[in-house]
Design a protein that fits this description.
Layout lengths: L1 H13 L15 H43 L1
Length: 73
């Protein structure tokens, strides 16, 4: 059992040694950054109306529950 624990601990301690070499720098141009930014803008532009619709639907359901609870009393 001790040998298994020792082996696992050595493997876990050796994991950072297999990390990616970070000596290379970011070499993509401004066009790549603009494209990624445009994609992010499209996602956010679609997310805002979806969140507003979700809040509106939640509010409508909450008001409906409140009205049915008041009608039962």
């Amino acid at each position: 059992m001790k040998a298994i624990i020792t082996t696992i601990s050595l493997i876990l301690f050796a994991v950072p040694a297999f990390a990616v070499d970070t000596t290379q720098t970011y070499n993509s141009g401004i066009l790549v950054l603009l494209f990624v930014g445009f994609c992010a803008l499209l996602i956010v532009a679609q997310l805002v109306p979806a969140v507003l619709t979700l809040f509106g639907m939640t509010k409508a359901v909450a008001q409906g529950v409140r009205k049915t609870a008041a009608a039962k009393n």
